[in-house]
Amino acid sequence: xxxxxxxxxxxxxxxxxxxxxxxxxxxxxxxxxxxxxxxxxxxxxxxxxxxxxxxxxxxxxxxxxxxxxxxxxxxxxxxxxxxxxxxxxxxxxxxxxxxxxxxxxxxxxxxxxxxxxxxxxxxxxxxxxxxxxxxxxxxxxxxxxxxxxxxxxxxxxxxxxxxxxxxxxxxxxxxxxxxxxxxxxxxxxxxxxxxxxxxxxxxxxxxxxxxxxxxxxxxxxxxxxxxxxxxxxxxxxxxxxxxxxxxxxxxxxxxxxxxxxxxxxxxxxxxxxxxxxxxxxxxxxxxxxxxxxxxxxxxxxxxxxxxxxxxxxxxxxxxxxxxxxxxxxxxxxxxxxxxxxxxxxxxxxxxxxxxxxxxxxxxxxxxxxxxxxxxxxxxxxxxxxxxxxxxxxxxxxxxxxxxxxxxxxxxxxxxxxxxxxxxxxxxxxxxxxxxxxxxxxxxxxxxxxxxxxxxxxxxxxxxxxxxxxxxxxxxxxxxxxxxxxxxxxxxxxxxxxxxxxxxxxxxxxxxxxxxxxxxxxxxxxxxxxxxxxxxxxxxxxxxxxxxxxxxxxxxxxxxxxxxxxxxxxxxxxxxxxxxxxxxxxxxxxxxxxxxxxxxxxxxxxxxxxxxxxxxxxxxxxxxxxxxxxxxxxxxxxxxxxxxxxxxxxxxxxxxxxxxxxxxxxxxxxxxxxxxxxxxxxxxxxxxxxxxxxxxxxxxxxxxxxxxxxxxxxxxxxxxxxxxxxxxxxxxxxxxxxxxxxxxxxxxxxxxxxxxxxxxxxxxxxxxxxxxxxxxxxxxxxxxxxxxxxxxxxxxxxxxxxxxxxxxxxxxxxxxxxxxxxxxxxxxxxxxxxxxxxxxxxxxxxxxxxxxxxxxxxxxxxxxxxxxxxxxxxxxxxxxxxxxxxxxxxxxxxxxxxxxxxxxxxxxxxxxxxxxxxxxxxxxxxxxxxxxxxxxxxxxxxxxxxxxxxxxxxxxxxxxxxxxxxxxxxxxxxxxxxxxxxxxxxxxxxxxxxxxxxxxxxxxxxxxxxxxxxxxxxxxxxxxxxxxxxxxxxxxxxxxxxxxxxxxxxxxxxxxxxxxxxxxxxxxxxxxxxxxxxx
Length: 1078
Known about the structure:
Layout: E1 10-11, E2 44-45, H1 55-58, H2 76-87, H3 91-98, H4 102-109, H5 118-128, H6 132-139, E3 141-144, E4 150-153, E5 156-158, H7 163-174, E6 179-181, H8 182-190, H9 198-212, E7 223-226, E8 229-232, H10 240-256, H11 260-272, H12 290-312, H13 316-329, H14 334-346, H15 350-368, H16 374-383, H17 414-426, E9 435-440, H18 447-457, E10 466-470, H19 482-492, H20 504-515, E11 521-527, E12 544-549, E13 561-566, H21 572-583, H22 590-598, H23 603-614, H24 621-629, H25 643-656, H26 660-668, E14 676-678, H27 679-686, H28 690-702, E15 707-710, E16 713-715, H29 718-731, H30 734-759, H31 783-804, H32 808-816, H33 818-823, H34 827-844, H35 847-864, H36 868-885, H37 888-904, H38 908-925, H39 928-944, H40 948-965, H41 968-984, H42 988-1005, H43 1008-1024, H44 1028-1045, H45 1050-1057
Parallel strand pairs: 1-2, 9-12, 9-13, 10-11, 11-12
Antiparallel strand pairs: 3-4, 4-5, 6-8, 7-8, 14-16, 15-16
């Protein structure tokens, strides 16, 4: 067993200075460079002063790699020039401070003297506080070994020459500051072929190295002979090995301190020092030396740590090159390759990720007879998930942290914060009652700001996460429901969208189950009534709910341990202090008190007037107060006697600062049906270009009328949206408002149609679309990214259009999104949109739209698998209406979908008849893609009924059609179902080949549901042929993917595994049924 090692020692550098006491905390690592057997670990020579903190905090280790060319070396002269440029100190002043002549300093800076006397260097170090890495790299020797060995003497590169000299110097540099025994050197230089004159040769080599490394004056010779070997003394700035180890130690310390971004940067700098395998020019055998092995292991550990931090910050691309570099020397390392797969997936290279996994699987089986391990398989399963707008986090599932950012200027509310803290501390976790705190108050009084500020303060008391949801109960956008909040909280806790029950009570029960043994803070913002809160209440007091509302929610006390905190406007001192801080004025400024009173000390109004004044530098406070007193608009926002007029005037004065175009854009924001909006949607709303709209929106941000959420999304406070809507109604004509709304809604429809056509080719359009231009600024976006980002806005547009018009937009958008909602299993959103659009179609008397929405609702219920009766009802209604309307494509699609529902519910014979009818309609109408889909479905059902020849005939026709259509989704489905039919006739080899062809296609196109189905089918076939361990492996993979999707087919796989693997296997497991998209 390897003996336990102490941290490396720290000694004085040749510059004569002592490192800080705190440094030793940062210099630990798990694998000693000496390679074991009792040798002392490396001493690291450093030169740090004027700081008790790590170098990473102050940047004293420079900026990265030391390049092997003269231009890339940081010489002492360059370091001093950079120091003077940074500080503004003159050459004369620096020479005076250091106690050296101006001529000496000039010679050093201009590199006339490349090897200055050590006394001059020490004086410059004391005068500037520069570090060893910044100075030592230029004053003396530097030997880099993290790659081919490179030796510099200041700016001059040294040619070491003879191979034996290079080997000896490389070994000594690799083991810098350690004594290296003669026996180790001899073994390293000659191996088994030791010459008789090895002692003389070794002495000669050492002498020649000393001449190469000659020093000036009283500087000590770095190569010393002592005891039975040699020792090469180098400082931290003289070799990349020590710099690498120091940076890694600093990065680890920063990580432990919670400074993750800084830690990532320090790891990146450390890894940038590597130019290839250590001492790569000395032959492959050097890589087996214990010191090289240990150093390579340190590189691998640092690479993994850097990758995890980069992933957490969404910088997968920055970690990929380093991971690939390490993979060249460790091609089968599970952790490295797992992270490469994750990085490839996150950077849009899913096919490369899948190929890598399969290549590794083959190599592992051929080399070691094992399958990929847990970490590698988890990364593979992750890459099979549907594409998301933002890549999910890697590693262990982290607690949700959904709180909006805290306000940097929050102040006051000391008594309310104390009351909140007291309620939290007094609550007994052993009690069964749920805990709810309700912050009430009028509009703009700061309820949300207080709730968010307090939630951030106590987040440490809720280690299992903080959830946030805004119900928008007091804005004119689409109000969210308790069901919406439950869905958001469940998905925040890791539940997939299709695993979220459709029934409200079932959702509430699932949330209570998830919170039963967790400590989570749930924040519900802008609640209108108790009915929004009751379903969200936990079952016990371990978690807590914080609520903001303008209404009285005292009824919650009947159901929970509830505390209500009523929030009033700020006190006069708090309001004046806030204004003073915002305006950078003294709190004693007389006009501030009058200004705060005119704003009724309402926080929202105070911030708006501060923004107004910031843009009116030439106006005095007194003038502004006079103007504010003259206002009389938006009286409905009054919060007290005399306050309403001031608040409405504060809004008006902000609005008055805008130019005509910005003012128009602000008014039009009152038409937006969702809480936030993208810049492209704003451009469509305004009928302007994106570039011009960005300028206008930024002016609104500057006036504090709009908040920028991300680089391309904006949000408006509900009071300001109300004000914008009122202004729009007053200023803009009805025709102008209708035109702007149509531009916005048609932008959503137009862009969604183009992008869904790209993402889901072959999807049947049942509702005709208006002939408009292309998507403009969204032409080059990734479809899945845009659809995920705009899903809320699209749903809000559908609901708004269904209620207020134009109603046809509600069913057009719903029909366009059918493929996206189906592929992403967002059944709740799909159903709510289709229900609203169905009602709108019925009100308009549009029968074709009504039929399309019945079909959409039937397909949504089919996807959920929870309400087969509802699915059948809607699909039958759609089929009859399409028949009456003379729409054979719609009729055939409804019958195809109905056939899958009938098959799922055990009516396979009826399903067969329905599917034959669908095929007949498709043939008559020339509906080729519908025919291929129906043939695939019928072939599957026929095979399940044992009608092998019928199944084979239909599926071969479907396969031919899919190839003719170049539809990869259909081709994979036909291959899968054909293989199923072949299996039923015991043609196992052909079936296995077909399944693997289907799996390959589905992997290439990212058909996650199809991948899971085919994996499960391969498991069934393997089990039928007696390959039980193979079956078990494929079932595990299939189940993992289905579980991630929340797909009901998981329940057909789970029983096959059993507690011990195979004890519960039936002779012929029933496969999961996967059909074509609706």
